[in-house]
Write a structure and sequence with these properties.
The protein is built from seven helices and seven strands. By secondary structure, it is α/β, with parallel strands linked by helices. It has a single domain, classed as Rossmann fold, CATH 3.40.50.360. Strands 1, 2, 3, 4, 5, 6 and 7 form a seven-stranded mixed beta sheet that branches. A hairpin with a 2-residue loop joins strand 3 and strand 4. Helix 1 packs across helix 6. GO terms for molecular function: oxidoreductase activity. Its EC number is 1.-.-.-.
């Protein structure tokens, strides 16, 4: 069985960070959908910040950064997660993708995700991140995932809506890798209880 690799790039600045937490949950969902032969590589950009800046200034990545770039460009799929600062992706996140060689993400199945203080920042996924990855010619999944502070209000495992979005994007990623159509989660409103039946249930016996 061929091992498929997923590179997870996370640009959180703190340790721990909600950005890394979202990245880990996306990685776990992708691994479940893709099966046991999946290899996940998580890359914390904060660990390579100085090398990224040096590569932008000199045009030459260090050996450590070159290995990270190779892991991203050589992976079968990419999950890219950034915090939202001033209505867009972080400078560290953008700088990393700026040092990639042109064409290195061509047609790569890619999930985009972000974290922010409130849900109103979620549009950054569509007005900033998706256009950037379109320019890089990555094959971005239809669903993007945003996690606001309220999604973590009940702890790391909270947020059924967030879970649903993560599950949906994981299915889309698996479908992109397998060349099949993603199957949607069952809609609880597809088979409603008839109104007459609800009225009958409310009548006294």
């Amino acid at each position: 069985m061929t091992t498929r690799t997923v590179a997870v790039v996370t640009a959180g600045l703190g340790q721990p960070s909600s950005t890394r937490l979202l990245a880990d949950r996306l990685a776990a969902a992708a691994a479940r959908e893709l099966g046991p032969s999946t290899s996940i590589r998580v890359i914390e950009l904060r660990d390579h910040a100085h090398d990224i800046v040096n590569a932008m200034l000199t045009g030459f990545p260090s050996p450590a950064l070159r290995e990270v770039i190779g892991a991203v460009t050589g992976a079968d799929a990419l999950v890219a997660v950034t915090p939202i600062f001033n209505a867009t992706f972080s400078g560290l996140f953008k700088s990393f993708f700026d040092v990639l060689e042109p064409g290195s993400l061509d047609a790569k199945p890619t999930v985009i995700a972000a974290t922010g203080g409130s849900a109103r920042h979620s549009l950054a996924l569509e007005h900033a991140m998706r256009p950037m990855f379109a320019y890089l010619r990555a094959a971005v999944t239809p669903t993007a995932v945003f996690a606001a502070s309220e999604d973590w209000a009940g702890g790391a495992d909270a947020g059924s809506d967030l879970d649903a979005r993560i599950g949906r994007v994981a299915r889309e990623l698996a479908a992109a890798l397998d060349g099949r159509t993603a199957t949607a989660a069952p809609d609880p409103y597809d088979d409603p209880v008839p109104f007459e039946q609800m009225l009958a249930a409310g009548r006294p016996a």
